[in-house]
Amino acid sequence: GKEGMDDMNWNVYKYRQFAQESSQPAEDLAKRVDILVRTAVDLGCGYGQSTRALNDIFHEARVTGIDRNPEMTRLARQRHPECQFLTLDMMELQGQYDLVFSNAALQWIPDHEKAIPGLMHHLRDDGVLAVGFPDTRGEPLFDIMEELIARYFPDHSRWNALNAADYHRILKGCSSSFDYWETDYYYSEFDPNLLMDWLVSTRLEPVQADLEEEKVQALAQELKERVGEAYQMDENGHILVKIHRIFFTAVR
Question: Quick check: 250 and 129 in contact, CB under 8 A?
């Protein structure tokens, strides 16, 4: 239950429920990697669901998950003792790997023009960079959320996703070959009552831990009202949400 957990831990706990659902894109991405993987790193691993998926798919591999949030890596170690986890910013990565993997973290990283070639440097020859992240522009839930974040927390408002032509150009410049694709994932049992926890742990928390509680509450309340008006709810009070994702695999 919630007793005894401070708010941050509760947010991480709630985040786990969403992460459970969002492990599908990570598995879809990992299955597109067709090299022998002996060493892999999972960037922005959260509580380790995607790291565990890599461990299951690439049996031979030593897999390390990294996340800059120590609370996440602590939970990840508890849940997945078979994997190794480090608390580290993904742009401070050291070493070289057969597979550099990232699911749902690159949207937090600015300047993809520099960041993607930078990650390619951490590949061994013929190694693969495999990346997936959401680009949710156009879906009412996220458009409303971004509009409110821009008003309540102007410093947190940012879009880092580029368009397909940009990624083709960047990948052409830094890889020997690449695949690029986009997919929509639908979540039919999305509960707007969980929006508050999800907003804080996945949208505001990775940017900055020091948030004014009253502002967060006010934003969450307005978000809930606006989302209630923008969607049709089913008999359980759930909505259908589409999350659009960008994917690519690139060979060094």
Answer: yes
Burial environment of residue 36 by CB neighbours within 10 A (0 to 12, 13 to 18, 19 or more): exposed
Do residues 142 and 135 lie in contact, with contact meaning Cβ atoms separated by under 8 Å?
no
Q: How many CA atoms lie within 13 A of 141 on its CB side?
A: 26
DSSP states of 16-52: HHHHHHTHHHHHHHHTT--S--SEEEEET-TTSHHHH
| Closest-CA residue to 153 (of 228, 207, 105, 89) | 207
Write phi, then psi, for 233 (nearest 5 degrees). Answer: -100, 150
Cα atoms found within 13 Å of the Cα of residue 193, Cβ hemisphere only: 5
The whole-model pTM stands at 0.86
pLDDT in tens, 128-137: 999 999 999 9
